[in-house]
Structure formats: structure tokens, C-alpha cells
Amino acid sequence: MTVKPLEHLQFERLNPLEIDQVLQQNSLVYIPLGAFEWHGLHLPVGLDSLTSHGICLRAADKTGGLVMPPFYYGMSGSIWHHPHTILIEDEEIFLKILKTTLTRLETIGIKKVVIFTGHFSLKQLEALITLKKDWLSIQNSLELSIFSISDCPTVKIEADHGAIFETSVLAEIDPNLVKLENLPPIDTYPANDPDGNSKGDHRRDPNNILFGIFGDDPRHYDKLTGKVIVNKIVDWLIQSI
Ligand SMILES: [Zn+2]
């Protein structure tokens, strides 16, 4: 399946002449945030960054502006110790990188930045609230908006971790990266969720079939759901900025 690469909107791939040409039309830069963490056997560890990058590119395709390369460093959550997971504990480090990026973008004359996070651990969302507050407290010419993939009001499926929501979103953005065949067949090995709770501590047990996946069984994935979710998020972003 071919996915529109939108490489001409990726800031890091452009030379100064190409950059100026795009930004003269709309002085807008998207910064996609994500994380590097276990999402189950069927998904890549960089999922949150891959999805936020893809969504920002689709939004920029409609609004104009450029998209920064996605951040793969995100703030810690309750699964920081899972395999193949690298998260930041110290909020100061995370904010320093973001503030430096904003300051430099402001210095080169960017008028508006949209931060869009595909990673929504509580610490990540709290850090972003602090960032917004800090940015507003200083005199600046760069307008900052911040959105989380978990906050889109028109998407009725709750954002999750490696489950049906995130699996569907990535399958729409980059279908080749979703390997549902890595999970055991659902008929033989159905999810074993006490009281139907798909986010309980039993999913933290490495022997659980859906280890490290929090939310409804991703093996119920269907193609249309991902398309609907991503379209709604892109529309919401465009309308909000
Ligand atoms: Zn995720």
C-alpha cells in the first residue's frame, strides 16, 4: 500500500530556499512529540512519534507550514521499565529542549508553532501545561498552541496504549508497521481480562497475551476505524489553529 510521503513538508529535508518558499506562504511550524516505548509485540516502539508526525504532515498539507522531525524522547509513565523503553524522568530536561527549539524558531521569524503530542502520559501532559504557561509569561512574538492526540473531542474511541486506538491510527498512517500476526490468534487465545477491564494490572504481567497493551484488544482492528480517527484528528487540528 502506498502512503503519501509529504516529504516536501518535512523541515529537515529542505534547503534554505525551499524552507523560505513554504514559510513565506504561512509562517507555521508543527512540532510532533512522541516517545520510545513498548507497545506490544505488534507495534514499533516509536509509535507515538510516528503517528504524531504523520498527523502533523497531513495537517500541514492543508494549512501550509512545515513539520519538524518528531521527538522520540517523551516523559515517563507507569511503564517506564518495560522492554525497549526509554523515557525521560526529569521534566527540566524535556522542557529545556522544547524551549530551545521554540526560541530558535522565534529567532528565525516563525510566527506560529503547533506542538502536537502522540504520547500522553500524565507527566507529558503536565510538562506541556508548564511549557505553555512559561512561554506565555515571557515577551515573545511566536504564538504557541499545544494539542494532544488524546483530546480530540470528535473521536469517540478513547486513546489507549498499543490497543485498538493506537493500532488503528498507525495502520492508517503507515500500515506496513503494524504486525498483528505477531500476536497469537484471537480465537485460540482471547484476551483474559478479569471483570472485562482491559487496562488492569494483569496486562503488566509479561506472561499475559496482551502484555504492555492497555485498552481494547487490538486484534479487533478494522481498516475503516483508523481512517475515521485520523481524519477527525486532522480536521480538529486544522480548525483549532
Ligand atoms: Zn503510545
From TrEMBL:
<dbReference type="InterPro" id="IPR024087">
    <property type="entry name" value="Creatininase-like_sf"/>
</dbReference>
<dbReference type="InterPro" id="IPR003785">
    <property type="entry name" value="Creatininase/forma_Hydrolase"/>
</dbReference>
<dbReference type="Pfam" id="PF02633">
    <property type="entry name" value="Creatininase"/>
</dbReference>
<keyword id="KW-0479">Metal-binding</keyword>
<protein>
    <submittedName>
        <fullName>Creatininase family protein</fullName>
    </submittedName>
</protein>
<keyword id="KW-0862">Zinc</keyword>
<dbReference type="GO" id="GO:0016811">
    <property type="term" value="F:hydrolase activity, acting on carbon-nitrogen (but not peptide) bonds, in linear amides"/>
</dbReference>
<dbReference type="GO" id="GO:0009231">
    <property type="term" value="P:riboflavin biosynthetic process"/>
</dbReference>
<dbReference type="GO" id="GO:0046872">
    <property type="term" value="F:metal ion binding"/>
</dbReference>
<comment type="similarity">
    <text>Belongs to the creatininase superfamily.</text>
</comment>
<keyword id="KW-0378">Hydrolase</keyword>
<feature type="region of interest" description="Disordered">
    <location>
        <begin position="185"/>
        <end position="204"/>
    </location>
</feature>
